[in-house]
Predict the 3D structure of the following.
Amino acid sequence: MTDGTPEPPELTSLERTALYKSLGNPLRRRILDYLHRHAEANSTVLARELGESSGTTSYHLRKLAEQKLIEEIPEKSRGRERWWRSLPFNHTTPDPATMAPDEYDAARQLAMLKIDVDTELFRRAHREYRGPEGWAQVQRYGTWLTKEEFLAFMREYRTLLDRYAHSRETATEGARPVDMRFYAAPGPVGEWNGEPTGP
């Protein structure tokens, strides 16, 4: 998330493993997606909307709250009826080479789920493309950069997102939730004029 939220305290390997397992759970991801789109919900609403029992959604809501991904809305909660909202979230996955085996496996499974979700987003962006002034946009570009230039570009990209991003509460009239992804990778390792072209 790029809304100016400060980086959270550094997580331990065990905490990251639990986080990746939570985010990789299909139902928990659907709950988080619903809260992102609708701002708030309780277990009964989620059960109806997601086709689950309220006991199941209540359990997963508590687990998401334990990991500070959502929080209870005290002014709306009464007795056993607890209402929830999502919390700002900012996490950068560390170098896989530094991960413990369980953490790496959980991160890999989460990555596979993200790829499926992102592939569908890519297809939808193409289906819904209505020209350069439409809501759906697809950009593809290739260039030559040094690693220092590339990392500088990434910092400026994050700064640009922070400048334009809004939360639901601060969004202006006419704003819609927009899903954006960015991927970049160097060309395959090889040689060009006798010099390596990859890391």
The helical segments are 13-23, 26-38, 43-50, 54-66, 101-127, 147-164. Confidence is low (pLDDT under 50) at residues 1-5. The chain is about 45% helix and 5% strand.
